[in-house]
Structures are given as structure tokens and as C-alpha cells.
Amino acid sequence: MNFSRSGRQWPVEGNTRVPYWVYSDGEIYAQEQERIFRGPSWSFLCLEAELAKPNSWRTSSLGEMPVVVARDDGGELRAFENRCAHRGALLCLKDRGEDRKIVCVYHNWTYDLQGNLTGIAFRRGLGGQGGLPEDCRPETQAPRKLRVATLAGLVFGTLSATAPPLETYLGDAIIQRIRRVMRAPIRVLGTYSQIVPSNWKLYLENVKDTYHASLLHTFFTTFRLARLTQKGALIINDSGGGHASLTMAADSGGREYEQAGMRTAQEGLKLEAPELLQSVDEFGDGCGVQIVAVFPSFVLQQIRNSLAVRRIVPQGAGRTELIWTAFGFADDSPQMTEMRLRQANLIGPAGYVSMEDGAAPGFVQRAALAAPELLSVVEMGGSGISSSESKVSEAAVRGMWHAWREQMGI
Amino acid sequence: MLPELQQAILDLNARYAQTIDDGRLEDWPAFFTETARYVVTTAENFERGLPLGIIYATSRAMLRDRVRSLREANVYEAQRYRHIVGLPLIELGAEGTARATTSFLVVRVMHTGETSMFACGCYRDHIVNDASDGALRFAERIVVLDSRQVDTLLALPL
């Protein structure tokens, strides 16, 4: 039996049971910020394509900690805390900018794009009076610098000196699934965000829950985009925190869902404009849906030709911002771009599929709030966290809890 | 500005908002031409020239599909909207067409009674006399949300 600093104790059943206090306990939430987001995990920061030019920056975060990601004048990617060494004000107030330096608006303290403090207004005072004493070293309170690593155009960061290299953190199998999608220079098609009214883990669990997709989402089942009967695979890395789920586009035409009376199989539902689902096998491997999620904050989605990254940003125990960035490739034809834009009707807050993922975690949050000591059952596919062909499984969810408990020490 | 056209666009906007707020979603696609574009996007995407929509429809058939999906397929909690629509800023185009920009504010009321300021922004419209019956319809309605954030989900149209 393991005890946390707050005295919370994990159920003896292990990763097949999740106590509901993990979604609402304020102390647990604060510990997660420290031990996971500011601890030895890699968080997704942004796309490299968003920082194409030297001397450009954008804001991001490690959990709740605000971060600046920059490409410096030498073309290197840098990331550092978005907090002035002086009084702790935000350094960058906008989403993005281009400049050789960053100036804090509060007292005009200046930084380069590596996060180094390079100038202090009136450091020596004026007319021989005022200013900082000779021995004052505000540099010691400078913004913390992140380790930055990129993979196939994705930028990740960590504050931890002890986190394993990004490649090790992800594992070869997950890297392969990421490289499959990020196969060429990308073109960002746009961005928006969705406020999910739940704890951040409920959203990440939803993404890792391969069992729910065809049981919650009528579009997946009725139009045979992703049924559990379609061939595929569930790949989970050694830490448990990274997974990829694959669903082949080919469908046997079987009537298992119809015969079982599943709500999501609606034979009467037809599209008057079926071009919404018109797609091409652009990766040439027959895989129609691939979802990759990496603990604690990253999702890469391929639903047919709809490609997007999602960044999970916790904003308190019961609220999560999900920032979507959809993309195509720089060499897409106008027709291909149009196809991606039409298929984007499946995703985001109004997505025929994803709107339901915005709501379902909130249903758990609201009901579980009154049952902190009771347990959720996560036992589909047994108790393991290893890869499998079957997606009638909650193995990736258990994997997430394995990684969470490891980092939290619970 | 032709007072009759201004009056007609005011009336079009008022009927559009009332149709959604009354929950008569089946009547909503009829406000658009057969080949209309209806896109919901954010001011950020719009200003940066990024084409992604939160909703991206390029025909009236796609709008009918959305209504059918909302009625028969999608899971979301019962809710209603209240649109407050501002005065349209109208520019006359060729052959009786008009471009109009109109502010809106939408309050969302959940079945629980929870009431929130859900969305605000502007409609950027291309309005035409539909050749089929002479009625004024949207050949294009770009719904530009001032915020990039949508709370939980966007089910009913804006």
C-alpha cells in the first residue's frame, strides 16, 4: 500500500481501480504541477512550424507554468519560464511575436531569446543615487530554462535535468507512429481551443480509452470509421505513459454492433453530403485512424486526412483547456487542403466526434465529485499495460495511471 | 443605402436568430443558398488568413446533415441559445447582392438553468436574392468568434 504526502492511498487492486479523489483533490492537483509538469516528464510545447524564423517566439506552458518558446538569432530553439527575474511579472503578454529581445513591461528589464537577463533599467541609478547595490545578483532569480527537444517538427520541453532523453521517454514504437504522420514539412491550417469541464486526466484517459470510441461516437460506428471489429493495434510504451491506437480503414461489413443493439450503430443515418467523409489513404498503409497520446499533455491525431495536435493544459482541478492545431503538408494541393478542412468537421468543439469527448469527461467530473473514496473500474482487457491487437481494452488508461503513480510516488 | 434592403436584412437576421433560439433547427438550412458556405471560425484564424473552421460547410446539404446529426447522432446535454444581434453594416455589391457585417452575442442556457455568455463575434455575410424563389439568403456566412475558446462543445449553430 502506498501513501502520498497528503495521506491519500492507492487501492490495493492496483491500476485496475482509480479512486475518484484523483480528479478533485486540490492538494493532489498542486503536487501534479510540481512532480509531473515541472518534474521529469516531457510536455508538448508547440510545432516547430510556428517558429519558422529566427528571433521569433510564442507562449506555451508546462502545466500551469507559463513558458516562452523561442527561436534565437542562431536559429536554435529555446524555452524558458515566462517570468521576470525582478518581480515575477509575465515577460510575454501576447501569443506570439518577433524580436531580438524581450522587454518586461513592468520595469523594462530586458532578456535575449535564450532567456538570459541582459539589461536592467537604471541598474546603477541616476546621478550617483539609487539603483541596485554592486553585490545584488538578480540573475539568480532569472527565468528557469527548459531542456528543449524536437521530434519530426514537434517541440517538447522539460524543466528536469534527470528526465531521460525525449527519444527514450517516447520509445521507438511511439516515435515510429509519430514519424509516420509527421512525414514532411507541415502547413498549419488553424487553431482553436476547447474548455473541457473536467480534470486534465479525465481528458487524457478519454484519449487513451480505445474501448469508448465506437460506443460513444455514432459517427465512428455508423460510418464505419472506427469499430472495435476493424483490425488495428494498441501500442503502449514501457513507461505506460505513451500509446498509439491504430484502426485500419477496411471494414468487414459485419453487423456485430447492430445485432448487439448499440446506440451508435444507426443504419438509418445517411449523409446527404457524403463528401464530408471523402478521404485518401495518404500514408499508404490502410490505417484510417491513428491516435497517439503522450503523458502528460500531448495528442497527435490522424482521423482519415484530418491531422491535428492537441495540447492539454490543466487550469485547476476541474477545468482543462485543450488547444487544437490542425495541419496539412506544405505541398498539399488546394483539393487536398479542402478535403482536410471538410473532414475537420469531425474534430474540435463542434466536431461530430470530438464534441462528445468535450462533454464526457465532465459527466464523470460532476458525478464523481460526491464519491471521492469510491473507485472507477478500469479492467477491460485485464490488468496489464502491454500492447495488444485488441482495442476492447483499457490497457492504455492503466498505462497512464502507471506513469502517473510513478511520477507522483503514490 | 436602400432602406428596403436594410429592412430586409434586419428581418433576415432577426428570423435567423429566432429560428435557432426557438430550436427549429430543421428550418435553419433554408436561410442559405444551395451552394452556400457556412464557416464558424475564430478572429485569430480569420485575421491570420488560416482557413480552419470549427464548423466548415460548403453546401446547404452539409447544413442539413449537421441538423440530422445533432438530432439523431450526437451526445450533448439539452440546451438553448438566446441570440442578441446588432445592426448590420451593409455594403452594396453587384446585382442586388450585399455584404453585411453584424455583431452578435449568444447566451447559452443549459437544462440545469446554468446561464453563460457563450459566444460573441460578428457575422460576415454575403447576401443574395436566391434565383430559385427571389428570397434573400446567405451565399456565405462566416461566423467569426472573438475568442478562440469554446466552452465544452458547440452543438447548436450560431
What does this structure look like?
The complex is a heterodimer of chains A (410) and B (158). Chain A is α+β, with helices and mostly antiparallel strands. Helix content of chain A is 21%, strand content 26%. Chain A has ten helices and 19 strands. In chain A, the strands form five sheets. A seven-stranded antiparallel β-sheet of chain A has the order 12-18-17-16-15-14-13, sandwiched between helices. The model of chain A has no long low-confidence stretch (mean pLDDT 95). In chain B, strands 1, 2, 3, 4, 5, 6 and 7 form a seven-stranded mixed β-sheet that branches. Chain B has helices at 3-21, 43-48, 60-72, and strands at 32-42, 55-57, 79-85, 89-92, 98-110, 115-129, 136-145, 149-151. The mean pLDDT of chain B is 96. The two termini of chain B are 27 Å apart. Classes of the chains: A alpha+beta (410), B alpha+beta (158). The interface between A and B is large, with 39 and 36 residues. Strand 12 (186-196) of chain A pairs parallel with strand 8 of chain B, so a sheet runs across the interface.
Write the layout of secondary structure elements.
The complex is a heterodimer of chains A (410) and B (158).
Chain A: E1 17-19, H1 26-37, E2 43-47, E3 56-62, E4 65-71, E5 77-81, E6 96-98, E7 101-103, E8 110-112, E9 117-119, E10 147-151, E11 154-158, H2 166-170, H3 172-181, E12 186-196, H4 200-208, H5 213-216, H6 218-222, E13 232-236, E14 242-248, H7 256-259, E15 287-294, E16 298-303, E17 306-314, E18 320-329, H8 334-343, H9 354-368, E19 375-377, H10 395-408
Antiparallel strand pairs in A: 1-19, 2-11, 3-4, 3-6, 4-5, 7-8, 8-9, 10-11, 12-18, 13-14, 14-15, 15-16, 16-17, 17-18
Helix pairs in contact in A: 4-9, 4-10
Chain B: H1 3-21, E1 32-42, H2 43-48, E2 55-57, H3 60-72, E3 79-85, E4 89-92, E5 98-110, E6 115-129, E7 136-145, E8 149-151
Parallel strand pairs in B: 1-7
Antiparallel strand pairs in B: 1-2, 3-5, 4-5, 5-6, 6-7
